Amino acid sequence: MNQLGHSLLSSESRVIRETVCNLAVLIHLFQNRVLRDRVHCSRLNNRLENLTMLFAIASIVLSAILMTQANVTDIVGTDVISEAVTNVEPLSEELYIYDVTSDAPVSELKGALESAGVEVRHSFQVLGTPQYFFVVVDDGSDALSQLTFPVGSLVTQYPAEHLDEFLEMVGVDGWNVSDTAGGLDDNDLVVINWEFVVPEGISTSEMKSMMTSFASVYRKPNQIVQPAEYAVVGRNPPKIYFFMNLDENSLQKAILEGLDAAGGPGNNVINVLRLRKV
After folding, report:
1. pLDDT tens digits, residue range 204-235?
2. Which of 1, 30, 60, 104 is positioned for an S-S bond with 150, CB 3.0–4.6 A?
3. In 10 A of CB 203, how many CB atoms?
4. 89-277: which CATH topology?
5. Does residue 157 sit in helix, strand or coil?
């Protein structure tokens, strides 16, 4: 930390110490006043005792701040968050997943995307429903700001990243990615919406360890199935979409066998939908 930073922290320390000392003196004076007035005025005694308690609590809080100031200084000196904001490589592609429910015909929905000039990587309809998924690429133009779906459409937008980029952030390297516009050959597909529900009180390092275990179990199946897979940006606990060619029975067996690596059945919310390409 530079000299100015140390000077500011030292000045702050002096202010806190003086405040704590002044509070201690005030507490002592009020306690004496309470003793003098105890016999003559019980109402004043109660009020002063309450005020004394408030000053005592304030003294404890400020003392705790003073005792932990060294730790605060260490955090300010390290400044990990600022380093992350300024030194991290941008994502390879800016992706968005649009979850759209609309009574409009699919031609009108796709027409809205085309009219705005949005590059569509994948487009799917959930079988038997008016629900659609569109995976689009933001090319840096103004296209997304021009996108408007038909009136009455229910639209949820998720900023997304390729799964390998998310896994690399939590310490997993070399994840296979096979996301192309011409991928997913079959017309009938499934999507897994996998939400990880970590236990209350779990730390970030423990969550990363869980994701590492998840990746170790599913690395080889991922290479075999080659899904298009995305993680929602900034979502913690993680939320991942897998679009793939796989029959339901194989899928449910693969999920069941790997659940323990992701913290067990109670720590996962998994939804599977049958899709068709549109």
Report:
1. 999 999 999 999 999 999 999 999 999 999 99
2. 104
3. 9
4. Alpha-Beta Plaits (3.30.70)
5. strand
Give the C-alpha separation, 160 to 242, whole Å.
12
**Spatial distance between the Cα atoms of 153 and 58, rounded to a whole number of angstroms:** 54
Find the helix packing angle between 69-78 and 42-67, rounded to 10°: 40
Domain ranges for the chain, please list them. Answer: 3-82, 89-277
pLDDT-flagged residues of the chain (< 70): 1-78, 80, 180-183
pTM reported for the whole predicted model: 0.71
Which helix (H) or strand (E) segment holds residue 273: the answer is strand 268-277
Q: Which amino acid does the sequence have at 278?
A: V
Q: Which of 149, 144, 98 is nearest to 122 (CA)?
A: 98
Residues near 86 by beta carbon (within 8 Å), at least 6 away in sequence: none
Q: Which of 146, 142, 140, 138 is nearest to 120 (CA)?
A: 138
In the block, tokens 């005020």 appear at 51
Sign of CA dihedral 46, 48, 51, 52: negative
Looking at residue 99, what DSSP letter applies?
A: E
Contacts made by residues 14-17, CB under 8 angstroms, sequence distance 24+: 16/62, 16/65, 16/66, 16/69, 17/66
Q: Which phi and psi angles does 203 have, rounded to 5°? A: -85, 165
Pick the closest to residue 2 from 80, 85, 88, 79 (CA basis): 79
CA gap 67, 59 in Å, rounded: 12
